[in-house]
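Colleagues,

For the teaching module next term, I've prepared a clean inverse folding example: a structure given as tokens, and then the sequence designed for it. I'd like students to try predicting residues themselves before seeing the answer, so please don't circulate the second half yet.
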């Protein structure tokens, strides 16, 4: 929720000052990348920040940049730069969440850019089904 609020705030500020949507997403990607890399290099290594969005910012930012790049809203170079920055942070501070973010971002990028229909695979759709709607329990 904290990342959503941060993203919407930045999106609103950028939209207020930049009228061109394509340029606006590029301008939005810059502070997001900076915040994500600050998280990877600084906040990620400190457990006292674990309850704040800043601790988990790098994976969210990388996912956002992958989504923007897949929709051709930003240059893939910006996404690559952020990914390589996360890789450098992982080398300096090997943390599992950074490794998972890098691997997941790479899989999403390669999967969606090389095989455009891979997200429509039946087993992937099955993984995304909300099974709580089908569960039931006896409460009385």
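(Answer key — instructors only)
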């Amino acid at each position: 929720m904290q990342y959503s609020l941060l993203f919407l705030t930045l999106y609103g500020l950028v939209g207020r000052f930049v009228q061109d949507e394509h340029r606006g997403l590029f301008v939005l990607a810059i502070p997001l990348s900076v915040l994500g890399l600050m998280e990877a290099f600084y906040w990620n290594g400190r457990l006292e920040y674990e309850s704040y969005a800043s601790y988990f910012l790098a994976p969210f930012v990388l996912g956002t940049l992958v989504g923007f790049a897949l929709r051709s809203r930003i240059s893939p170079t910006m996404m690559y730069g952020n990914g390589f920055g996360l890789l450098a942070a992982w080398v300096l501070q090997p943390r599992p969440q950074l490794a998972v973010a890098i691997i997941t971002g790479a899989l999403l990028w390669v999967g969606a850019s090389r095989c455009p229909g891979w997200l429509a695979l039946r087993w992937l759709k099955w993984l995304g089904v909300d099974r709580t709607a089908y569960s039931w329990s006896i409460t009385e």
